[in-house]
Amino acid sequence: MTKIVSILTLLLTLSSCNFISSFIHDDEVVARVGNEKLYLSELSSYIPDTVSPEDSTNLAMQYITSWARDLLYLNLAENQLSKAEQDVSSELEDYRRSLLRYRYEQLYVNDRLDTLITDAQIESYYKEHEDYFKLQRPILKVRFLDIMSDSPNAELIIRCMSSDDYSEVLAADSLAYQSALRYFDKSDVWMDAAVLAREFSTDYVTMLASLSDSFIRIEQDGRLRIAFVLDIRRSGTAPVEYASAQIRDNILSDRKHRLLKSLEQDLLKDALEKKKLVIY
Asked: How far is CA 160 from CA 142, 165, 171, 175, 227, in A?
């Protein structure tokens, strides 16, 4: 009830539109288009209890505007279109058939789809379709640090994060947790250069231009962003581990397609055999 009172009070207070002053009509109707009425209960159910009073007002106005616009368009169309043009029964039936078919196909696939994909299957797919996995941008393996330039731990973290000694790498992670604005270790996975460039708030071409002696270092506005680059591939074919997620999606997509194709063929075959389908 508090939410409803808040909505009405704020709408009356924040807007001078004449129709808002009629929101309290019968304590239920908040808007009307012709004979169509929008009720307070419908408006209230659209607005979460957790939002602020100001946000409640904005959401209420958005809902009312959308509701009114749809009805006004409908009234205009009904007045301007002929009866034949208003007849949408055929389109509605086509949509109903498509929707039911889609829902059944989803059920059929979900019940039968084998989602287990082995490393051997990924490797086999990769070898058969290597041309599909040409790099569009460089990819890198990095450790990244974002820290205030005047941090007393900055240089120590940088030294540790670039070390070959795993204990020092762990020390970098621990120190960064205490001192850094952001730190991550992606030394065992490939990153798209464009994704890494967002950490530097720049484009990947500019970022890679800063690469020197295995470091990408950009210092600006009192902040030091630095990446230690363990490996980089600027062009060529993406390694299988980088392409594996896409390969999994492709394999699953192929399996879905085969299931649906088989379903379609079985349906036609069964209908012909049982004389449900007769082709003259």
From this structure: 13, 8, 7, 9, 12
Q: Is residue 148 within 8 Å of 193, Cβ to Cβ?
A: no
Residues in the chain: 280
Per-residue pLDDT tens listing for the chain (280 residues):
555 555 555 555 444 444 444 444 445 888 999 899 999 888 888 888 888 888 888 898 999 999 999 999 999 999 999 999 999 999 999 999 999 999 999 999 999 999 999 999 999 999 999 999 999 999 999 999 999 999 999 999 999 999 999 999 999 999 999 999 999 999 999 999 999 999 999 999 999 999 999 999 999 999 999 999 999 999 999 999 999 999 999 999 999 999 999 999 999 999 999 988 888 8
What is the C-alpha separation between 46 and 256, in angstroms, rounded? 37
pTM of the model: 0.70
Token pair of 54 as six digits: 């100001």
Residue with tokens 């999994």: 248
d(CA 51, CA 67): 21
**Nearest-5° Cα angle at 240, 106 to 143:** 110
